[in-house]
Task: inverse folding
């Protein structure tokens, strides 16, 4: 419709719809699966507030970064740190604190970050010296929408699963050396994801034996473009596969550990009075939602 009518008032609609459709679908996915004390309003708030503060915080911390060989890795560490802090803030009072809950909350924070970041990339793609480039805008929106679930959403889900999994279903977060390990892993994966375009181009030069001087004009020679594109797609698939395997491994590990009789007994002994009803349902634990108090 925008192309047919040339109505520029529709451009913000394209940017908002394209940037938020897939990430907010992630939130709906989380709403259907989250348990315990997390409400729908808390998740929606985490999506929007987490996304806004995440983008702003990352922009402030990245403002002084200088271009270099490891710029994308540094960006990965900065953005995952910001999202991790927001995850701690949002999930401080969430009960139970399990790996599954952490993965869902992390996915929500990551989806909010991805939505607002994609809106910025789409805006930059649309504004050119020749006016509004709708083709570039749509290409940017489609690519980032398709990749968002295996980008920011996946990285923060891994971090959330490890962070909350260390609590073993309890009410309070607990320290574990696996937390900084997970932070480093997701930051490196994030950096590899962002630098994949540069790496695939360099590999194309290496595999074909083309001297790097051929790229002095700032463009890839026509003969290398198809190979660089293929390597780029393969690189994204490899990083995605690693991230999915890590997330599944973390969830399976904590499910087996927390599902053991010892973990269940520990969870029950840690539960507050409202988690066990007076009607004799002694087997209720943190998975039950606390009753609403008068006035809530």
Result:
């Amino acid at each position: 419709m925008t192309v047919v009518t040339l109505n520029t008032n529709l451009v913000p609609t394209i940017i908002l719809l394209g940037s938020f459709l897939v990430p907010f679908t992630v939130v709906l996915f989380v709403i259907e699966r989250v348990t315990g004390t997390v409400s729908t309003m808390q998740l929606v708030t985490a999506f929007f507030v987490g996304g806004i503060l995440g983008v702003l915080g990352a922009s402030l911390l990245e403002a002084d970064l200088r271009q270099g060989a490891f710029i994308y890795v540094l960006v990965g560490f900065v953005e995952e740190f910001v999202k991790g802090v927001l995850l701690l803030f949002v999930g401080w009072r969430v009960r139970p604190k399990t790996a599954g809950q952490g993965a869902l909350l992390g996915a929500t924070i990551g989806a909010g970050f991805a939505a607002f970041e994609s809106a910025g990339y789409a805006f930059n793609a649309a504004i050119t010296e020749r006016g509004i480039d709708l083709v570039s805008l749509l290409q940017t929106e489609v690519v980032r929408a398709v990749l968002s679930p295996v980008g920011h959403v996946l990285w923060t889900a891994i971090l959330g699963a490890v962070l909350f999994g260390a609590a073993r279903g309890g009410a309070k977060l607990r320290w574990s050396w696996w937390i900084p390990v997970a932070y480093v892993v997701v930051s490196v994966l994030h950096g590899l994801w962002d630098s994949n375009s540069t790496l695939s181009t360099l590999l194309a030069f290496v595999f074909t034996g083309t001297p790097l001087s051929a790229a002095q004009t700032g463009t890839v020679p026509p003969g290398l473009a198809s190979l660089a594109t293929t390597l780029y797609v393969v690189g994204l698939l490899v990083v995605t596969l690693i991230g999915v395997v890590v997330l599944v491994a973390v969830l399976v590990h904590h499910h087996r550990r927390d599902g053991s009789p010892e973990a269940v007994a520990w969870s029950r002994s840690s539960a507050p009075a409202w988690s066990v009803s007076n009607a004799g349902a002694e087997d209720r634990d943190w998975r039950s939602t606390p009753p609403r108090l008068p006035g809530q």
Observations:
- The longest strand covers residues 127-128.
- The CA atoms of residues 99 and 255 lie 8 Å apart.
